[in-house]
Amino acid sequence: xxxxxxxxxxxxKDAGESVIFTTLLLNHSDLEKEKDAIAEFSDMSNSIINSMxxxxxxxxxNIAWGFGSDAWDYLFPNAPKPKELEPxxxxxxxxxxxxxxPGDIFIHVRAKKMSVIYELMxxxxxxxxxxxxxxxxxxxxxxxxxxxxxxxxxxxxxxAGIESMDYxxxxxxxxxxxxxxxxxxxxxxxxxxxxxxxxxxxxxxxxIGRHKFSDRExxxxxxxxxxxxVVSKDEENGVEHKIVRMNVPFxxxxxxxxxxxxxxxxxxxxxxxxxxxxxxxxxxxxxDFSTPITGNLSFIPSKTxxxxxxxxxx
Length: 314
Prior knowledge:
Oligomer: single chain
Helix content: 25-40%
Order of helices and strands: EHEHEEEHEHEHHHEEEEHEEH
Shape: globular
Largest sheet: 5 strands, antiparallel
Number of strands: 13
Structural class: alpha+beta
Number of helices: 9
């Protein structure tokens, strides 16, 4: 058996023109009511999405949502559990820390139109609002030329198209109960944009490891030893392990608050975790300008698993 893209949620590279990331906490006050609402949402979310794609196909809406570890334990205490679904453990480096923050339900919606995202989220929250409170809601956007907010092309090394499914979808041989699901790690960063902009372009390039204009990778002797594209890799015996990552800009310009929302989808969270460990223990140069304020891991169920949840099988 192999992975089946038709049974998967939208866990591939497509940052969209407009994006909303939402992290919710369950009320933990009425288990049966909350389970019923989650079953309804598991049943209705795909219909809501399909309806919107019919109503506005040009918007190209893509959605992925899932559960944090604590939510899974609370809602489905007697059910099987995805092998790697655990609370994210903070990573302390010599200078910076990848923090761990709570999250029970994670939703990632992107499309070419914010109006479509609004309509989707409004219908989603009609079901979820009575049983949750909002931990974080971040509205992102596609920056000029698909660049990150710090000015560099984003996602050059990402697996492309259908190839990405080899890196994001759980193989039936590895965890058959949760085949075609995925792990999502979300991390929200605030940037010191004034300090970053004060760097010369060549110093920014050394920090990232790529040319800013052309996006070509710098030669190894031109990069800093802790350049971002050096320490954010996970390699073993010369083979690079990949995930599908998106860095989505967000900003409140009048308040001088600007940042990046990082989302990484993978079939094996251990790969993502090793990348993070490298970044923080080796003091990624980009962290001198970027402070993580959230960090949580979610499991994105396949459509098959959502059907089981909707039917009360768990």
